[in-house]
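Many introductory courses stop at the sequence. We go one step further.
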Amino acid sequence: MNAEIDTRALSSLMRPGARIAVADGCGTPRAAFPALGGIARERGDLRLVLGWMPAPVEGLDLAAFADARTVMPGWGLRAGVSQGHVRAVPARLSAMPALLAGPLRPDLLVVSAAPGPYGPVLGSEVSWMRVAIDAGVPLAVVLDDALPRAASGPPLPEDQTFVIGHASDGPAVVPVAPEPSPEHRRIGELVAGLLPDDARVQWAPGQLGQAVVRGILDRGRPVHADSGLLGDPVVDLDEAGLLASTPTATYLVGTPRLYGWADEHGRAGRPVLHGVEVTHDPNRLAADPPLVAVNTAVEIDRDGQVNVEGPASAIVGGIGGHPDYAAAATRSRHGLSVIALASTHRGVPTMVERLSRPVTTASHDVDVVVTEHGVADLRGLDRGERRRALRPLWPD
């Protein structure tokens, strides 16, 4: 890590008992983590708000805070949650603006920003940060000249911005998912066959997302990318000439290939990133062109209810935008809410009699379920018909 942080300047921005929000995503201000943890240990009364962390939060002493909460407990925060240092708040990502305006309103936002021609700009994510910025929350900014300039919108307000240090870390690198398994490749083919003309597509990360994009590439018909996360597969679509418009997302998560693509226009960047109040807005998502939301699940029950938080033994993910995109897709004319998953995971069926955790996405927000064994179109069916339609996707 190549960084210089002014700990005294950061501490001066924190009143006693302050709630500190740390910007999330791959561009989270990692360089400030040791200083932030040290101040929390010294003060003993600071509170912490976290979002989605795709990599371990090394250097951030979560146990030093009087209270720490997140709405996305998966990935980088799994250890903190399991050890009891971080409380996982069950909330969809679109609820973050309301939470930040109310019970979780921060007194300070610690954020990384890229140097821009007219001042610092958000880099590899916008997420919920714009909401805090627009509310007038002071910003402790780490200037990072290795961040891509991929955010739409204006630079950070000069009167709220306090530069506490400089870094050249860039966003965390999240390797491309492993090559899709034969089961996932089959699922990708089936999902691609469901897409209407001129579709907007949201897809989940990982092997499933890779398989869905491969299916789109094989199909050879342009799509609009409209997803909470954009990974390296969006570059594949662009290079194949299959992006029908500028993509829309709130996070970049991937490798230098993705970050270079997002920063391709130099200091102007490629403005693909917007705040969650835009990306996860149900009315925008449900509008034309038709939205096909392709999400996965840890498990699904016989009524089509979905759990994405994890098995009974551990939380492995957060609610995130899963129910936001699924609900909007069911309202989109000619759109679809698709749940795509392999019929087994490590030899255990993903269809269960009873979910291990509370419902993430309701059955009435699921239009179609896809496994490697086929497609179940649940639209217009009653409860009994839905159960019978799902049965062949999990053969005994």
